[in-house]
Amino acid sequence: MRVLVITNLFGFPWDASRGVFNQQQFDRLAERVDLSVLVAVPWPQALRRPGRYWTARREGRKRWAYVDYFVFWYVPGVAQALHSLFFFASLVLQRPALLFFTRWQALLGSWGFPDAVATAAVGAMTRTPVLMKVHGTDVNDYLDVPGKRWQILAAARRCHAVMAPSMALRTRLIDAGVAGHSVHVVYNGVDATRFQPGDRRGARARLGLDAETQTLLFVGNLKVAKGCVELIEAFVTLAPTHPTLGLAIVGDGEARTTLARLAAEAGLTERVRFVGKADHAILPVWFAASDVLCLPSHNEGVPNVVLEAMACGVPVVATRVGGIPEVVPDYAGVLVPVRDNTSLVAALESALTRQWDRERISSHAHGFAWDANVDRVTALLAGAAGHPPAP
User: Rounded to whole angstroms, how far apart are CA atoms 121 and 150?
Assistant: First the structure.
C-alpha cells in the first residue's frame, strides 16, 4: 500500500525535535506501508537558512529515508484564509511528478489547515482517497476562524476518515458538522522502551540538580497558550513556602522573555532554569529528575509530553482541557480550570506533597502504545484504499 503524507509537523534538519509525535508514528507506519512524507518548510525559515534548506533533502533522508521537503510560499500576516491555496500551489509547482504521476493508494494530510485542506484538493484531482489527521489547535482555534472553518469542514467531509487524538476533538468536529461515523479517535502512543521510571539520583546528577531539592518541570513551546505565564506566576507564589523548589523550563518560544522578566522581578532567577529546546532523547532524564510535570495549557489535544511524563512515573498537574481528562486519572495527577491561578497553586501544592504510586502511573501510561496506534492508522488507510472515490 503506497501512502503519501503531507504535513508541516515533522523534523527539519535544523529542528529535529519538531513534530516528534509524527516522527514516532511515521517511523512505525513506514514498517507497515510504502510510505512517503512531504514536509512543508515555511519560506521565511528556508530563506533564513538557504544553505541548510538546499541540503535538507539529503540530510533529511539520512535520518528519515521516507521524507522529502518543499518550500511553503505564502503572504505573511495577511490573507491567512488563502494559505491553503498557497500551500496547494507550492505543492503542485514543486512536486508535480510525485503528486500526479505516482499511483498512491491513500493520501494523509496531517494538520487540519492548510495541510489537510490542500491534501484533500490533491486527492480530488487525482481521485485518491484522503484521510485527515487533526491535532488540537487546528480544531480548537481554527474552527473559530470563519475563513478557515468552512475549508476545514469541507475537506473533512470529503475525506474517507478523520483521525482525532481525543474524544474531545472528535466531539468538536461532530458538533461543527462532520459526520460522526467518519471521525475516529486514535490516541497517540508512548515509547515504553524509552519512557519508564528512571534513576532519580543519577538523572539529577547528570543535569546538575541538587539531590535534595524538588523540581517542577515544564516541557513545551513557550507561548501564552501553553499556560507558561500562569505557571511561573504560580511558582512565584509557591517559592517563599517551598525554599528548595526549582522550576525547569524545557522549550523555547516567544514568551521566554516575559518568563525571564517575571522570574527576575520576583528575585527567583537562580531558581528558574531555562533549558531551551532539548532533544527528545534527553526528556526521560528530565522526567526522572523531576517531581511534577505542569502543563497549564489553554487548549490541547492529547499532548504527548503528558503521556511520556506519566510513563516515567511522574505525576501531572494540567488544565482540564481537550483530551487531557481522558488520559490523566486521579491517581496520576491533578487537573484544574484554565487560567485559574488559585486552583493551579493549590494543585501544585498538593502534587508536591502527595505520595504518588509511580509504578501505577507508569503502568497506566504504557497502555497508550504506539503499536496499537499504528494498527489503527494502518486499518483506516487500508479501508480508504479499498474504497476509492467515485469518478
Answer: 14
Q: Determine how many CB atoms are found less than 10 A away from the CB of residue 212.
A: 7
- Model confidence pLDDT, tens digit, residues 51-107: 777 777 777 778 889 999 999 999 987 789 999 999 999 999 999 999 999 999 999
d(CA 114, CA 299): 20
Please state, in angstroms and rounded to a whole number, the distance separating the CA atoms of residues 98 and 285.
Answer: 41
**Helices vs. strands in the chain: H and E counts, helices first:** 19, 13
**Contact, 389 vs 129, CB < 8 A?**
yes
Cβ atoms of residues 152 and 310 within 8 Å: no
From residue 308, alpha-carbon distances to 108, 284, 290, 322, 367 in Å are: 25, 8, 13, 17, 11
Respond yes or no on whether the N-terminal peptide bond of residue 296 is cis (omega within 30° of 0).
no
103 grid coordinates: 499511483
Spatial distance between the Cα atoms of 346 and 291, rounded to a whole number of angstroms: 16
Phi-psi region of 74 (alpha: psi -120 to 50; beta: other; left: phi over 0): beta
pTM reported for the whole predicted model: 0.92
Q: Phi first, then psi: give them for residue 328, nearest 5 degrees.
A: -115, 95
Q: How far apart are CA 363 and CA 121, in angstroms?
A: 42
CB atoms within 10 A of CB 60: 21
Q: Give me 365's grid cell.
A: 501510561
